[in-house]
Amino acid sequence: MMGVPVGVGPKWGATSQRSTSGSLSPSTLVPATRTLAFTMSQFSYNELSSATGGFSKLNLLGQGGFGYVYKGLLTNGQEVAVKSLKSGSKQGEREFQAEVEIISRVHHRHLVSLVGYCVADSQRVLVYEYVPNKTLNFHLHGLGCPAMKWETRIRIALGSAKGLAYLHEDCDPRIIHRDIKSSNILLDDNFDAKVADFGLAKLVSGDDTHISTRVMGTFGYLAPEYASSGKLTEKSDVFSFGVMLLELLTGKKPIDSTNDCMDDSLVEWAGPLLAKALEDRNYNELVDPRLEGNYDLNQMARMVSTTAASIRHSAKRRPKMSQIVRALEGDMSLDAINDLLKPQRVGSTLSVNQIPDSPNSIVDDTRAYNDDMRKFIEKVKSSSQEHERT
């Protein structure tokens, strides 16, 4: 399945006119004060129907609660991924607006590009660049897929980290993705990563912390602060990214009911093994056995330390995405990376005036996470049952 972004948007006027200007029409789609990072086309429904062979099943790349994704070929010869969204969904309408507004603001080699869109009567269609090599989730967990080489895993981790760092720290206003997971990382033929699916993304400014009353993200990747309070910040994305790093390290799914050695989440299962690996630098129990020990020890030490720092229970103790990029690139010493795992005193700077941390605190963090998630799942179930009764 193509992990192309998921979404739909607000009630825009129906149109089938083609536009190739640098701004969207109607103008309410994107604030007039913003300049789009690239030219985006407005397609007619007939154009996209022709591009996909009448939305033929032969061109179907994937499907989900949002609708269907097809491979298409535009008249100019460009291959695209065409997402036809289910009509009549309020959430879908919100997500459509979010995708068009947010992706039109950004352009980065590690973010999927939006080529254009279509609004025709009740039809909502998004057109993306076609990324040919499926998703990280497919290559890690797909049946019959060969074991991904260590060099490829590092390449994907670094590329997706750069894309997220751009959203968090180089965009104004900042962008929180809110649904980072392996199925939302698209791969090209060189296994370069592109972050996709901006249907749940949120623009934030200043010290704004978004509090969501709707379920955002995917179980197994949700940050503990969201489960306990509904708060979402850039550090929530960092936690989800840390879970994805765990997938790359271990080859395991975030939640896998078929795995006897994982009673609960990957985060809780991996906690003691991360702590042990940080202590003795023996990675055999933690690392995907399909790698057969074929990995660079220094890179592995960086990845393990970065992962442990990213999934800390306290959002404030997680690194920024730019720090993660530096760590994975080798521009930060291993001691400095491990310092990210230590609670800092007020007013301290990295690597100084820090209180020693113990491996047990990592285990405690992961246990606390699982407790939070159990409570959250019960709350969601209770809310759903209450909604059904009303």
UniProtKB/TrEMBL annotation:
GO molecular function annotations of the record: ATP binding; protein serine/threonine kinase activity
Catalytic activity: L-threonyl-[protein] + ATP = O-phospho-L-threonyl-[protein] + ADP + H(+); L-seryl-[protein] + ATP = O-phospho-L-seryl-[protein] + ADP + H(+)
Main location: membrane
Enzyme superclass (EC): transferase
Stretches the record annotates as Disordered: 1-27
SMART domains xrefs: S_TKc
Stretches assigned to the Protein kinase domain: 55-334
Subcellular location: Cell membrane
Stored InterPro entries: Kinase-like_dom_sf (IPR011009), PERK1-13-like (IPR047117), Prot_kinase_dom (IPR000719), Protein_kinase_ATP_BS (IPR017441), Ser-Thr/Tyr_kinase_cat_dom (IPR001245), Ser/Thr_kinase_AS (IPR008271)
Sorted UniProt keywords: ATP-binding, Cell membrane, Kinase, Membrane, Nucleotide-binding, Phosphoprotein, Receptor, Serine/threonine-protein kinase, Transferase, Transmembrane, Transmembrane helix
Gene Ontology CC: plasma membrane
Keyword flag ATP-binding: yes
Skewed-composition ranges (Polar residues): 14-27
Entry's EC annotation: 2.7.11.1
Protein topology in the membrane: Single-pass membrane protein
UniProt cross-references to Pfam families, sorted A to Z: PK_Tyr_Ser-Thr (PF07714)
Binding site for ATP: 83
Homology family: Belongs to the protein kinase superfamily.
PANTHER family for this protein: PROLINE-RICH RECEPTOR-LIKE PROTEIN KINASE PERK4 (PTHR47982)
Name listed for the protein in its UniProt record: non-specific serine/threonine protein kinase
Native organism: Artemisia annua
